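Hi V.,

Quick status before I head out on leave. The structure for the redesign project is tokenized and pasted below; the design run finished overnight.
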């Protein structure tokens, strides 16, 4: 009978062998396209992975280090013999990494398998990767990617995640997260517009980004439309489609917490989603840029604008600070006031809190509907302010009627439902 330890060890050995076979198979197929036939193949990679696994089982860190040195030395010798015909070091480094992954599979087979698959993909897709970096990716785009990575992976983790400042209302981590979020949404719109054009790219990006933050999406679309008016209709469609995503996400949030409340709010959410989607569809269908050469020559600009993203976060921060001061001055005046203030930032938070209170039998379903609708209304008002701030009068003139139509439809659905 296998014990639990035996089964874990056996699983690790199988994963190690699988990694070696997978990466080795890819390298084996490359032999025919390589200038030399001396490159390591499926057997060498499989043996290297098993060596790494066995070294961990035999003696842990010291034995693994010695094994890695031996494999690395062998790869170095092979490189010295073939570097005149094939100066790349990819196979040699892949062999060493496969050995280490084999050892890692004994301790964490799932993560080792995932890294092994990524390694195989990097090796298999080398031509596409080279083509993308050399011929598709521009210098400015590469710079933007590096800058975004620095913001997301360095600045964001270092930002203090605690409330501070007047009324303890400002959270630096949350504000930096907003900056990163706006940059990411803007970059998504950039990629979609470059790939599909303004006609399809911006509406699709707007809908997808709406599940992250509809307010940030409206801001990002407005910023892009203000730079280039030819994409105005696509940006408006994307902004309104993001509100459709808000309705869908709110339904999911409420349904997960309290399904009975979702049934009561089904008509308002459906009415609001249909109104926003229908209004956005008008711009998508009737005011699209031409599909000929003009669309292909569209100036997509930069992936994101750090200054505009920072201004958005600052705007949100000022509103949070103002609402916190108002709340401290007036005190608690019931759920409607709290829902209105919370809705300025996030309508989903209001919906989730009301649904949670309903699920805990603290309030009835009828008592929960009002705060949710009020929060959604103030959130829509916030979107209108953001639209004017980011895209100017012309963008806001297109967006605000759609937002007004949406919120009227929401309240109409609530009235019909009652």
């Amino acid at each position: 009978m296998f014990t639990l330890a035996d089964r874990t060890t056996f699983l690790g050995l199988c994963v190690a062998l699988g990694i070696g076979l997978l990466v080795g198979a890819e390298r084996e197929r490359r032999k025919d396209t390589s200038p030399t036939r001396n490159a390591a193949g499926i057997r060498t990679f499989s043996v290297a992975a098993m060596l790494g696994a066995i070294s961990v089982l035999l003696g842990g860190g010291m034995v693994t280090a010695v094994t890695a040195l031996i494999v690395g030395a062998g790869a170095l010798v092979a490189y010295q013999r073939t570097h005149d015909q094939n100066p790349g070091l990819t196979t040699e480094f892949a062999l060493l990494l496969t050995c280490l992954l084999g050892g890692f599979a004994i301790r964490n087979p799932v993560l080792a398998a995932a890294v092994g698959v990524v390694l195989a993909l990097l090796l298999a897709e080398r031509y596409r990767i080279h083509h993308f970096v050399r011929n598709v990716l521009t210098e400015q785009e590469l710079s933007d990617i590096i800058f975004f990575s620095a913001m997301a992976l360095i600045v964001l983790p270092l930002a203090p995640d605690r409330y501070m400042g007047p009324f303890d209302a400002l959270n630096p981590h949350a504000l930096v997260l907003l900056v990163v979020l706006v940059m990411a949404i803007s970059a998504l719109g950039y990629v979609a517009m470059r790939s599909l054009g303004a006609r399809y790219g911006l509406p699709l990006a707007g809908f997808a980004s709406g599940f992250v933050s509809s307010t940030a999406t409206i801001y990002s679309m407005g910023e892009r439309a203000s730079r280039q008016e030819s994409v105005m209709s696509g940006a408006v469609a994307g902004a309104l489609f993001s509100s459709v995503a808000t309705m869908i996400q709110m339904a999911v949030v409420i349904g997960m917490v309290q399904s009975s409340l979702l049934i009561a709010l089904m008509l308002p959410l459906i009415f609001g989603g249909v109104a926003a989607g229908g209004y956005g569809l008008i711009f998508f269908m009737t005011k699209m840029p031409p599909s000929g050469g003009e669309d292909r020559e569209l100036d997509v600009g930069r992936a994101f604008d750090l200054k505009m993203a920072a201004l958005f976060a600052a705007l949100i921060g000022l509103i949070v600070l103002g609402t916190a001061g108002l709340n401290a001055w007036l005190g608690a005046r019931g759920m409607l006031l709290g829902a209105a203030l919370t809705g300025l930032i996030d309508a989903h938070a209001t919906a989730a809190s009301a649904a949670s209170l309903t699920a805990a039998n603290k309030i009835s379903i009828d008592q929960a509907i009002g705060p949710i609708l009020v929060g959604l209304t103030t959130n829509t008002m916030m979107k209108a302010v953001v639209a004017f701030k980011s895209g100017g009068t012309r963008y806001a003139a297109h967006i605000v009627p759609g937002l007004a139509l949406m919120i009227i439809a929401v309240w109409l659905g609530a009235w019909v439902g009652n």
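Above is the designed sequence. Residues 4-133 form one domain.

G. will cover questions while I'm gone.

Best,
W.
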